[in-house]
Amino acid sequence: MKVGIITPYFDRRGGAEHRTAALVAGLKGLGHEVHLLASRWHSDLISGLHCHRVSLLPLSAAIKLRSFTWFARRTAKRLHLDITHSQGRTWGEEVATLSGGCHRAYLESLVEEAADARAVLWHDPFHKAVLEIESRQYQACRRIIVLSQWSREGLLRYFPEVASKVVVVHNGVDCDHFNPHHRERWRTSTRAELKLAEEQTCFLFLGTGFARKGLAEAITAIAQGSTGETVITVIGAGDKAPYQRLSTQLGIGERVRFLGSVGDPRPYLAAADALLIPSYFEPFGNAFLEAMASGLPVVLTRTCGASEIITHGQEGFLADTAYDQQALAEAVHALLDPELRQRMGTAARAAAEAHPWSRSVEATVAVYREILAEKGKTGVA
């Protein structure tokens, strides 16, 4: 099978890029011919690929998006691919994976209680471009892959006519790369770096997009649900000043550690005792599976797709939304118990093992084969 993977950037910076890299590796492993259409890529990831550089105009974000979409379509047409699979906001491809979910649903989630903010966002040139392209994308493609049932519901709330095209494929995780055994290697040294005594409980907040992922709510939960021996380590890029002010106002300024972006989160997963990310909008969330594979219990919201793969009170705790501050504080308080953390961490690891990346790749290839059958190309390997 000759597959074209279309993505603006091909590296390992975030969840969407992890998923694309896993898909590409899986397709290569199954013997398929993989063509990468991207504006740039990381040299370590392209072995065995046919790479095609797609131009984009280096102007505003909206113009970059529109130009990449146009040039990607031109490039794909001349390659005569069996399947074209977009990993971003483009249109005209046969398969689209919505790693970020439905953009219209995302905007609505940001401005649920602020009509003025809705007006501003919807007139922003970038958001207008995304909304226009996403509408065309959904109509043009044969299949839409979403990462969770929750994400599917958000999409169909605004585009019910595409229901027959939507397929849910959960993210996966590399359970060798993320593993509880890393604690033996990194826990002592990383906790020393963070000036943490072994008896202190350390929650980890991991991800860029502090407001959407509920950092303020996580800090408040630590303040309300824990003692002076509990800290939260924050990893990710963003403006930390508002959250430092909040921490100080809540009297826990010294217990909130901001580390910025890190290349490898595994030492900090090894140092942590639980993951706490009460997102407002999260189609899936790779960080949860990575933490679970590392043997950590997780605290998240039901407005996160990863909530579908855990049971409340078994691998971690679920709050209905990030607004449910009492539930978040109660979860933090419960996880101060090391025996409970141990039991939940063991259950979390077992749950993660049921979601290898190979499972996601197989489900995606099954989608390809359905499309080829519809096109009458049943003889394609």
Task: Describe what is shown at a glance.
By secondary structure, the chain is of the alpha/beta class.
Characterize the structure shown.
The chain has helices spanning 15-29, 61-79, 103-110, 115-122, 125-140, 149-158, 182-193, 215-225, 241-249, 266-271, 286-293, 325-334, 338-353, 357-374; strands at residues 2-6, 9-10, 33-38, 40-41, 50-53, 83-86, 95-97, 143-146, 166-168, 201-206, 230-235, 256-260, 274-276, 298-301, 316-319. By secondary structure, the protein is an alpha/beta fold. The strands form 3 sheets. It has a 7-stranded parallel sheet, sandwiched between helices. A 6-stranded parallel sheet has the order 12-11-10-13-14-15, sandwiched between helices. Strands 2-4 form a two-stranded parallel sheet. The radius of gyration is 21 Å and the shape is globular.
